[in-house]
Design goal:
By secondary structure, the protein is mainly β. The protein folds into 2 domains: 447 residues, Porin; 116 residues, OmpA-like domain (60s Ribosomal Protein L30, Chain: A), CATH 3.30.1330. It contains 11 helices and 29 strands. The chain has a 22-stranded antiparallel β-sheet that branches. Strands 28-27-29 form a 3-stranded mixed β-sheet. Helix 8 packs antiparallel against helix 9.
Length: 721
């Protein structure tokens, strides 16, 4: 039998890569640790906004290493490594399918630091070296054959298309983050990282429509398809004397991130210092729920030296042509080069979108939900790509200690269970250690570890929970208000009313009277709290109000407080019984209608009686002088007028026709005025009387006779209606 030809032992190479990555690193990067609120500068790797309002004042990373290997072809039993390390390779299981993949990365965080400038602003500087290896859509049978095959057995493999790449680069980043919004329970911060990238080494390969057909009888292998192969070597690309200058492989990139925090107890998380100004307690987590989103590695490395070659794999040749050659030699020596370029394809960094939700169950326990989604296609040439995953991580977190255990679902790998911890300056963990130890065919291996110098924010103490930090609190163990320097208010008189609300702090009194005893201002024996008239002496019967006329109506409600009256008339009397109280009655002693203000109305009989009296008034002949014997008559008239105090009358003078009419007119006016003046002199209001003289114009009898003339010489008093 002919000795089989061998190129590169690819299977052994893949197993070596797997074990190397397991010994050096973690899943994608620092799984679990990046959710820790005390991770300092590491936070910028997944979201640059995290360092704003950080629990870490200054964080100096000395060295940190994280590595990851994942695939769906090789499965290892980690426990074999404890007995014999060779067993890891010898007993490894292989699961070949038409689209196997392998992925690994190595992430070394070198000297880096993060600094919190103040409550709103933070910065970070970091140095980082990274290695990514991706091999996608490979027919697993090729890997099996590459490891060795029976030359006496024919085979046909339809590979189709596949891609693969390995990239090694360094990056130097500057991060700035600040608080964007802080409004009551809502808090928002954002951040950006700018990166300078230096390529160290890069190689990539892509096959299209590839088939392998081996005939054992003829020992000929027929191949078809097209292969693209490129490489960049650090020997021509990095100027270590001045690495900040653009070399033959360099570029710029950036990360962007936002973090929102819901802080329902934002008032509790602000302490008060001596000057009374609120200051954030930066040493504690103030959120109940934190939601973050970021995009990382938006960048590429421009490869300006190296080569990019395209080969036509079509042809039939003996397998002896490949004997003793490695993969690159076999391609170049046996297939046609159809295109060659000096500049390789640019290296696309593993751009990804990250979301993170962190629930603060209490001050000790947290639950974190994280997703990492690749923004790079698997078939993109010379690209680096993370595996999509979602993880749920319970976490115990204190300032100097964190313990977490991520439970993950990783693309094309499945369920992984890991664990990690941070103890002061030391951090280490793995995103798959538990499943690797408990399972027999682990397809993902990772671990990370590092050392740093953290300086955490000072935590303000408030033992009594009154919102005043202990150093500014005059009574740090007993809750009290700020206005009393953190001490509770006293109650010196023990009346249940605190001194700050007690107007009489040394004398007991009820709360309703602001801690003072009730007074009796008017000294009537009725306390002011029960006295409806606290400033006027009264009687208890009337709630401390007086009733001067003892009519049962208190003075404040009595229209006639000094005269007994009835409730019907608001404490006033109604002497004449005309249903109009005396205070409103123009004729309180004589009943009259309300329409006439309580006074009687002048009737026709009264009018007649007035004129009967008036006509008997006698005057001296030819004069206006009233004769003495008529005074009695006028007194009777006055009595009648007084009975009708609101009535208004005319005093009319009349004469006979003897003499001239002008003299008679003057005489009638004089006599009317004489009677009016007499009545006014006896108390009748002038406003009630009007004097009019009619002369001889209105006779009531015949002036031709003596008796008629006597009747015409008269005075009449008539009501003005």
């Amino acid at each position: 039998m002919h000795k089989r030809p061998r190129t590169i032992n690819f299977k052994k190479c893949l197993l070596s890569i797997a074990f190397l990555c397991y010994c050096m690193g973690s899943a994608q990067s620092y799984i679990g640790y990046l959710a820790d609120n005390y991770n300092g500068v590491h936070g910028v790797l997944s979201n640059p906004a995290t360092i704003a309002d950080s629990r870490t004042k200054l964080d100096i990373n000395l060295i940190g290493v994280s590595g990851f290997f994942g695939n769906d072809y090789i499965g290892v039993n980690l426990s074999d490594a404890f007995d014999d390390i060779d067993d890891v390779f010898d007993k490894a299981s292989q699961t070949a399918n038409e689209s196997n993949f392998l992925a690994s990365n190595l992430d070394i965080l070198g000297p880096s630091f993060m600094l919190s400038l103040n409550e709103k602003n933070s910065i970070a500087l970091y140095s980082r070296a990274r290695t990514f290896f991706n091999l996608n859509d490979v027919n697993g049978e090729i890997i099996d054959k590459e490891g060795g095959f029976n030359e006496n057995e024919s085979f046909f493999i339809n590979e189709g298309s596949f891609t693969g790449s390995i990239n090694v680069w360094t990056e130097f980043g500057f991060t700035y983050a600040r608080t964007i919004l802080e409004k009551e329970q809502h808090f928002l911060k954002g951040g950006i990282t700018l990166k300078y990238l230096v390529g160290v080494q890069n190689a990539y390969i892509r096959g299209e429509d590839i088939t392998l057909d081996y005939d054992a009888d003829t020992r000929l292998i027929t191949t078809s398809g097209q292969l693209t192969y490129g490489e960049y070597d650090f020997n021509t690309g990095v100027d270590f004397d001045n690495f900040l200058e653009f070399g033959n492989a360099s570029g710029f990139g950036f990360d962007l991130g936002l973090v929102y925090e819901w802080r329902p107890e934002h008032q509790v998380n602000s302490q008060l210092i001596k000057d009374g100004k609120p200051v954030s307690n930066r040493g504690i987590n103030k959120y109940k729920l934190k939601i973050g989103a970021s995009i990382t590695d938006i960048s590429k490395i421009n490869n300006r030296d190296g080569f990019n070659e395209i080969y036509d794999l079509s042809g039939t040749q003996s397998i002896d042509n490949f004997d003793g050659q490695d993969l690159e030699e076999a391609i170049r020596n046996n297939f046609n080069l159809i295109e060659s370029q000096n500049n390789p394809v640019d290296s696309q960094l593993p751009a990804a979108f990250h979301t993170n939700i962190d629930w603060n169950i209490n001050s000790l326990f947290y639950l974190n939900l994280n997703t990492d989604l690749s923004l790079i296609r698997t078939d993109k040439l010379n690209s680096n790509r993370i595996l999509n995953e979602i993880s749920l991580s319970p976490r115990l977190e204190r300032k100097w200690l964190s313990i977490y255990s991520p439970l993950r679902m990783v693309e094309d790998i499945g369920f992984l269970w890991g664990a990690g911890l941070r103890v002061g300056p030391l951090y280490l963990g793995s995103g798959s250690i538990i499943t690797s130890l408990l399972g027999n065919d682990a397809q993902s291996l990772d671990i990370y570890a590092g050392l740093k110098v953290p300086i955490y924010q000072k935590t303000l103490k408030d033992k009594d929970g009154d919102g005043i930090e202990d150093k500014s609190d005059a009574c740090p163990k007993i809750a009290g208000p700020l206005e009393n320097n953190g001490c509770p208010w006293e109650d010196r008189d023990k009346d249940g009313v605190l001194d700050k609300e007690d107007d009489c702090p040394d004398t007991k009194g009820p709360l309703k009277n602001k801690g003072c005893p009730w007074k009796d201002t008017d000294g009537d024996g009725v306390l002011d709290k029960d006295d409806q008239c606290p400033k006027t002496p009264g009687v208890a019967k009337y709630n401390g109000c007086p009733d001067s006329d003892n009519d049962g109506i208190i003075d404040d409600e009595d229209r006639c407080p000094d005269i007994p009256g009835t409730p019907k008339h608001q404490g006033c009397p109604d002497t004449d019984g005309d249903n109009l109280p005396d205070v409103d009655d123009a004729c309180p002693n004589t009943a009259g209608p309300v329409s006439n203000n309580g006074c009687p109305e002048v009737t026709e009989e009264v009018q007649k009686q007035l004129n009967d009296y008036a006509r008997t008034i006698l005057f001296d002949t030819g004069k206006a002088t009233i004769k003495s014997e008529s005074v009695i008559t006028i007194v009777d008239i006055i009595q009648i007028l007084n009975e009708y105090p609101l009535a208004v009358f005319t005093v009319e003078g009349h004469t006979d026709s003897v003499g001239s009419s002008s003299s008679n007119q003057k005489l009638s006016e004089a006599r009317a005025n004489s009677v009016r003046d007499f009545l006014i002199g006896k108390g009748i209001s002038p406003n009630r009387l009007k004097a009019i003289g009619f002369g001889e114009e209105k006779p009531i009898a015949n002036n031709a006779t003596r008796s008629g003339r006597k009747q015409n010489r008269r005075v009449e008093i008539n009501l003005i209606k």
